[in-house]
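Workshop exercise sheet. Pairs work together: one partner reads the sequence aloud, the other fills in the structure field after running the prediction. Swap roles for the next sheet.
Pair: D.N. / O.F.
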Amino acid sequence: MRIKILGSAAGGAFPQWNCACPNCRSLRAGTFQGKARSQTQVAISTDNRSWFLLGASPDLRYQIESTPELQPQNGIRQSPITGAMLANADIDHVLGLLLLRELQPLRIHATASIRRILCEDNSMFAMLHRLTNQATWTNFAPGETFALRDSFEKDSGIRVRALSLAQHFPAYVSTDRQQSLKAKESSLGFIIESPAGKSLAYMPAVPDIGDELMKEFDSADLLLLDGTFWSDDELIRIQGSGQTARKMGHVPVSGPEGTLVRLAHLRRPRKIYLHINNTNPMLNEAGPEYRQVRDAGWEIAEDGWQFDL
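Structure field:
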């Protein structure tokens, strides 16, 4: 199974369009010791011909144009992107689906609650259903293992198990609507097993790490983990307002309960942070935070990275 990281930043990308934090300001000035990043997007394939998206970021068009394998290879309108899998209904995770509205057959794997939010509550997503079988939805439930199939029902050989990580829906979902949905279907992580028996733990938003989740991480070959914020009060310190990382659903990287300490014992997986906010100081490759992460055996994802499992 080939894994391509098309984008590695949190919502808003890096630099963020309306931000003049030290990171964004120095990157624009050309003095930053680090790289720009688009919003988090991962694609996987077992044959390099049919690709599945993990989420669909607002930067998806740019990411496709930066990745030859995802560009049309045969025929006038024949994309190698045949499916997508949704971990939540956040804007920066699903907006890219609307960029795939050009009458291209697509299979979308999602929980029933996420499907209802997008298909029943938001008329814009009707653009994915202008033709019969333009978008085919396949429901999955947390805890079950399912086969990742393309728009033509072809089995990719990839098996996926969804883990419920949180129980809150995006702010745009009304309170009344939330009461009719299943909270455990709102925010998920994926354990993705390749035909070769290797596994990827894809966890872009993790609000808490208990013992069971720790075991899942330790059994994976590759861990792509939430690296959104360095510290719990990061946004409050930098912009003078906002919520803590934990209230936003992200365990911070640093601190006694941060992921660097909590996961220090992990030995099996290759450990990579992604979904990194523009304010996170570990983006600065000349800074002590970057060095602390690297010395602890972690990597910080960059757009364009590729792995094989």
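Discussion prompt: The radius of gyration is 19 Å. What would you look at next?
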